[in-house]
C-alpha cells in the first residue's frame, strides 16, 4: 500500500534536522564547498605518500584527452614500457588512433551481426534495446584490445598520429551511432522480409564500406606497411623499412598474447570463484579472441598482481575510478572522504551489493606500476599509471590504497605463468565453454 509524505511527517523531519548537533555549520560548509571538499580527510593525504617498495621505471604518462580510450591507452602503455627499456627509446608511444580505427570498424560489424541475429525479436525486447542504446562506444576490455592486436598489430604513434576525432571522440561517436541505428532498421527489415543471406551480406558490406570511409576521414587511414626511423638514448640511428604492423608487434613487443588473461574479482552469488565466464554480445572482432574472465577470491587476485610487479612487469587493471577518489591530487582511497560522518548517515555496502544494485562497475582502465609491501609482504598501497596527462596526481601517477583495491578493482590482466596448476587447468578447460552472463551483467561493463 502506498503512503504519501504528510505535513506532520515533514514537521518531524524538520525537527530532527534542527536537533542534529552542528547542523547549521554543516549546512554552510556543504553549501559553500560541496560534499567532497567538506568531507575530505587529511589522514588519507598523509597515508597515500607516493613511495613504494616495488616500483617500475615507466617514464612519463600519456594523455587520452577527451576520449574514452583508457583501455587502449592502458594496454599500449604495458607494451611501450618494455619497448622503451629494451630498445632505449625514452618517450616512445604506440598509436592509439590506429587501434581506435580498427576497433570502431570491427565494433560496427559486430553490431550489425547482433542486429541480424536478434531481428526476430520485437523492438522493445530487452536485448534489442540493449543493442540500440549504444551501438558502439570508445570503451572496451582487455580481450577486445588483444583481438585487435592479434589481427592488426600495432604501429608507432608517429606513423599514425592523433587527429581531432581521436582526441575528442564525441562527434565521431554521435555520427557513427546514428548511422548504425539507421542501418539497423534496414537490416532488421531485410531479415524479417526473408531476404537471402547473400543479399543481406552484400548490403552489410556496403554499410561497412561507408563506416570505413567515415573513419578514414576522421581518424586517418591505417598503414598496411610503413617506414619508421628513430635515434635511441645512446644517439644511435635505427630505421625500419616496409614493415607491417604485425611484424612491428612481433619484433618490438614480442608477447605471446595468449599468455595474458583477464582475471576478475566479482563476489556475487551468481559467479562462484575459480570458474570462467563470458558475456553475451560483448566483443568487437568476430572470429577473433573472445572475452574470458577467470573469477578469483580477492587475496588470490591481489597476490598475482604483486608477483607480476615483483618480476618487473606492469599490470593492466579495470576499476570504478569515480568512487572515493580525488582526481586532482591523485588519491584513490576508501578514507579520502568521510561523508558518513559529515551527514551522520550509513552509506556502507559490500562489493557484491554494489555490483548487484548497480552502484558500481568497471569504468576505467589504468596500469599498476608499483606496490608498497609491509614487513609481512602484504600490500598497503599501489602505484597507478593513469592516462589523463601530467597535470593530475603526481605527474599523472596516482596512489591507490589497498582497501580501495579490495572494494573497487574488478579486473586484472595476469600472465598465466603466475597461476597455480589448478587455476591454469581451469582456465584452459572452461574457456572452451564458459558460463555466459547476460549482456547487461556488470562484468560486461566497458572501461
From TrEMBL:
Active site: 70, 364, 386
Transmembrane segments: none
Residues of the signal peptide: none
Localization: Cytoplasm
GO biological process: homocysteine catabolic process; proteolysis; response to toxic substance
Top-level division of the source organism's lineage: Bacteria
Keyword Protease: yes
SUPFAM superfamilies, alphabetized: Cysteine proteinases
PROSITE patterns: THIOL_PROTEASE_CYS, THIOL_PROTEASE_HIS
Family of this protein: Belongs to the peptidase C1 family.
Keyword Protease in record: yes
Any one GO CC term of the record: cytoplasm
Gene Ontology molecular functions: cysteine-type aminopeptidase activity
InterPro entries, A to Z: Papain-like_cys_pep_sf (IPR038765), Pept_cys_AS (IPR000169), Pept_his_AS (IPR025660), Peptidase_C1B (IPR004134)
Protein name, as recorded: Aminopeptidase
Keywords for the protein's UniProt record, in alphabetical order: Aminopeptidase, Hydrolase, Protease, Thiol protease
Pfam families: Peptidase_C1_2 (PF03051)
Record-linked PANTHER family: BLEOMYCIN HYDROLASE (PTHR10363:SF2)
Amino acid at each position: 500500500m502506498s503512503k504519501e509524505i504528510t505535513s506532520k511527517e515533514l514537521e518531524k523531519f524538520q525537527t530532527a534536522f534542527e536537533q542534529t548537533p552542528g547542523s547549521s555549520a554543516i549546512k554552510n560548509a556543504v553549501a559553500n564547498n560541496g560534499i567532497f571538499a567538506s568531507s575530505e580527510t587529511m589522514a588519507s593525504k598523509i597515508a597515500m605518500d607516493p613511495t613504494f617498495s616495488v616500483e617500475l621505471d615507466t617514464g612519463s604518462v600519456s594523455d587520452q584527452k577527451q576520449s574514452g580510450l583508457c583501455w587502449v591507452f592502458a594496454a599500449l602503455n604495458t607494451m611501450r614500457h618494455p619497448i622503451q627499456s629494451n630498445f632505449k627509446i625514452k618517450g616512445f608511444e604506440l598509436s592509439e588512433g590506429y587501434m581506435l580505427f580498427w576497433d570502431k570498424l570491427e565494433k560496427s560489424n559486430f553490431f550489425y551481426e547482433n542486429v541480424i541475429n536478434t531481428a526476430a525479436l520485437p523492438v522493445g525486447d530487452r536485448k534489442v534495446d540493449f543493442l540500440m542504446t549504444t551501438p558502439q562506444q570508445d570503451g572496451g576490455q582487455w580481450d577486445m584490445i588483444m583481438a585487435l592486436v592479434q589481427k592488426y598489430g600495432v604501429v608507432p604513434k608517429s606513423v599514425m598520429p592523433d587527429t581531432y576525432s581521436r582526441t575528442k571522440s564525441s562527434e565521431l561517436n554521435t555520427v557513427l551511432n546514428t548511422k548504425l541505428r539507421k542501418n539497423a532498421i534496414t537490416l532488421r527489415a531485410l531479415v524479417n522480409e526473408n531476404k537471402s543471406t547473400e543479399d543481406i551480406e552484400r548490403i552489410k558490406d556496403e554499410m561497412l564500406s561507408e563506416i570505413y570511409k567515415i573513419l578514414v576521414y576522421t581518424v586517418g587511414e591505417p598503414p598496411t606497411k610503413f617506414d619508421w626511423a628513430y635515434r635511441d638514448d645512446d644517439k644511435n640511428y635505427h630505421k625500419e623499412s616496409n614493415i607491417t604492423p604485425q611484424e612491428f608487434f612481433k619484433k618490438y613487443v614480442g608477447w605471446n598474447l595468449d599468455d595474458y588473461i583477464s582475471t576478475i574479482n566479482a563476489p556475487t552469488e551468481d559467479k562462484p570463484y575459480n570458474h570462467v565466464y563470458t558475456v553475451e554480445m560483448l566483443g568487437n572482432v568476430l572470429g577473433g579472441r573472445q572475452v574470458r574472465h577467470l573469477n578469483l577470491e580477492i587475496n588470490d587476485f591481489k597476490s598475482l598482481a604483486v608477483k607480476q610487479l615483483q618480476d618487473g612487469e606492469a599490470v593492466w587493471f579495470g576499476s570504478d575510478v569515480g568512487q572515493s577518489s580525488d582526481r586532482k591530487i591523485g588519491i584513490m582511497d576508501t578514507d579520502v572522504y568521510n561523508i558518513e560522518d559529515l551527514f551522520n548517515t550509513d552509506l556502507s555496502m559490500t562489493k557484491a551489493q554494489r555490483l548487484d544494485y548497480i552502484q558500481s562497475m568497471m569504468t576505467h582502465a589504468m596500469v599498476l606500476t608499483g606496490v608498497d609491501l609491509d614487513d609481512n609482504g602484504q600490500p598497503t598501497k599501489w602505484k597507478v599509471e593513469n592516462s589523463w596527462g601530467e597535470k593530475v596526481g603526481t605527474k599523472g601517477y596516482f596512489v591507490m590504497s589497498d582497501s580501495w583495491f579490495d572494494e573497487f578493482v574488478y579486473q586484472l590482466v595476469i600472465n598465466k605463468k603466475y597461476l597455480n596448476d589448478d587455476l591454469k587447468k581451469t582456465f584452459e578447460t572452461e574457456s572452451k565453454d564458459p558460463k555466459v552472463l547476460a549482456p547487461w551483467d556488470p562484468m560486461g561493463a566497458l572501461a
